[in-house]
Amino acid sequence: MEHPTSDAVRTGTLAVPGATLYYEVRGEGPPVALVGSPMAAGPFAPLADLLAADHTVLTTDPRGIGRSPVDDPVRGVPVAVRADDLARLLAHLDAGPAAVLGSSGGAVTALALVQDRPELVHTVVAHEAPLDDLLEDRDKLHAATEEMVALHGTGDVVGAWRLFMSVAGLDVPEEALEQMFGGERDPGEVADERRFFAFDLRSTTRWRPDFEALRSAPVRVVPGIGEESAGQLCDRTSMALAAGLGVRPAMFPGGHSGFSDTPEPFAARLREVLGER
Questions:
Q1: Would you state the CATH architecture of domain 2-135+207-273?
Q2: Cα–Cα distance between 187 and 102 in angstroms, integer?
Q3: Based on CB atoms within 10 Å of each CB, which residue in 110, 170, 205, 247 is the most buried?
Q4: pLDDT digits (tens, 9 = 90+) for 176-232
Q5: Where are the domains of the chain?
Q6: Opening angle at CA 273, ends 269 and 277, nearest 5
Q7: What does the CA dihedral 168, 171, 176, 178 come to, rounded to 10 degrees?
Q8: Any idea what DSSP says for residue 70?
Q9: Could you tell me the pTM of the whole model?
Q10: d(CA 106, CA 68)
Q11: String of b and e for 104-128 (b: at least 16 CB within 10 Å)?
Q12: What's the rounded Cα separation, in Å, for the pair 219 and 17?
């Protein structure tokens, strides 16, 4: 079900097994999907607006996040289910084969889509996929993930995020952590965060790509790395992904959230990577 909300954005929902997916569509032209996890559609809006000048741009709230409710909120969402949700959205909108930019956990979703439904995509840019299982210190990283989950489960939200940022290699001052994650917060944001730590963090970081399937698919897969991410965890995992694929990674403006922090140069670089300039 799709509803026009303005000249720029059309919103809709799609019923899928176990959930209802919220999505937004902008513009007209070659299809491109912008996908996050656990990030919802909102932070992609500036980039989507820029690309909508000559593309049909799909953004969505992942299953269980934001405006995409699930029937059973105490069950996790495997990466394969997230990929199936994206496949259903692309088919529903008759938007394939499409280009897909997946960022962070959304990059993992996009890689799984290539493995499961390669006919729906022609190019995937996997921007900073947190594929911890590809690294030699995976056991240490998985143990840290379990500690984050446990901290959050006991109510130590700031402590969980402090460890998350430290492991990710992100330098966030203690005062900023307290401002972002302590005190009174939006209930929807808190609910999404709870799902992230309880379910999504494990499934995303432990997912391991099938390199043979990715290399043999008729899809161009481009690992993306932020220019400001050198030495961070997602720099390491993206380099490991590129090595497994036998390709060179593409550098993008900004860091892990460059698509929202610097949308204009990011859009220009994405067009270059997609071969449009």
A1: 3-Layer(aba) Sandwich (3.40)
A2: 26
A3: 110
A4: 999 999 989 999 999 999 999 999 999 999 999 999 999 999 999 999 999 999 999
A5: 2-135+207-273, 138-202
A6: 75
A7: 50
A8: B
A9: 0.95
A10: 15
A11: bbbbbbbbbbbbbbbebbbbbbbbb
A12: 27
